[in-house]
């Protein structure tokens, strides 16, 4: 897990302004785009989250089949857009929840016919679901970190990757202790919302 968290800290650098606005305001403009029903709404969601969904599908299914699976995920999301509940979790988490269904279904087919799949899938079918869930959770951790403002991301990194106490972080960064606690709480809340979106897609 330490290696995963360290990797997450590295990948968390360089997030975009759109995500920063979402964190500050609590409103994701992509949710509005998705629920609008317009074709450009689907394109906006696809452009923003295609890389995340494709990377997940590729890890489970392998690159040769990931592109088709990614398309299926967004088609399914578009058809079921009325079932997405922003209060239940993030759009990124929800999309990976849909992707999880797609890859598990496909790995069952490949296991039945003996087709090779991505390295993240365990060879025995009983392990497929667990592997798909673990991979998604790790990727959502990365996404959660990426979606934080720089200061909040730094606080979470220092607390959980460098194992510093809140007091040590406050001294190191020259900020009040209350600010450290608030930023870390914000980071954990973001991760929780990603995972809740993932779980909500599975329930629906």
Quote the distance from N terminus to C terminus.
Answer: 29 Å
The biggest sheet amounts to: none
Total E-strand runs? 0
How large is the radius of gyration?
A: 18 Å
Please state the average pLDDT score: 79
Count of all domains = 1
Order of SSEs: HHHHHHHHHH
Helix content: over 70%
Task: Report the β-strand fraction as a percent range.
Answer: under 5%
Please provide a brief summary of the model:
By secondary structure, this protein is an all-alpha fold.
Question: What attributes characterize this protein structure?
Answer:
204 residues, mainly alpha, disordered N terminus
Explained architecture:
The protein is mainly α and 204 residues long. Helix content is 76%, strand content 0%. It is globular. The N terminus is likely disordered.
Helix and strand topology:
Layout: H1 2-11, H2 17-25, H3 29-36, H4 39-61, H5 63-79, H6 91-113, H7 128-146, H8 150-160, H9 166-173, H10 177-203
């Amino acid at each position: 897990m330490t290696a995963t968290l360290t990797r997450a800290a590295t990948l968390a650098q360089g997030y975009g302004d759109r995500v920063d606005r979402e964190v500050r305001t609590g409103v994701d403009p992509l949710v509005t785009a998705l629920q609008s029903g317009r074709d450009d709404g689907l394109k906006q969601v696809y452009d923003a989250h295609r890389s995340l969904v494709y990377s997940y599908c590729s890890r489970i299914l392998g690159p040769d089949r990931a592109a088709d699976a990614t398309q299926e995920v967004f088609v399914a999301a578009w058809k079921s857009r009325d079932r997405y509940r922003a209060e239940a979790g993030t759009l990124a988490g929800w999309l990976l929840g849909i992707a999880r269904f797609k890859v598990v279904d496909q790995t069952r087919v490949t296991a039945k016919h003996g087709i090779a799949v991505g390295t993240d899938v365990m060879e025995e079918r009983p392990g497929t679901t667990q592997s798909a869930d673990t991979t998604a959770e790790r990727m959502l951790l990365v996404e959660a970190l990426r979606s934080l403002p720089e200061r909040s991301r730094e606080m979470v990194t220092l607390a959980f990757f460098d194992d510093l106490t809140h007091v040590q972080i406050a001294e190191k960064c020259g900020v009040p202790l209350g600010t450290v606690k608030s930023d870390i709480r914000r980071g954990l809340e973001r991760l929780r919302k990603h995972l809740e979106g993932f779980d909500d897609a599975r329930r629906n």
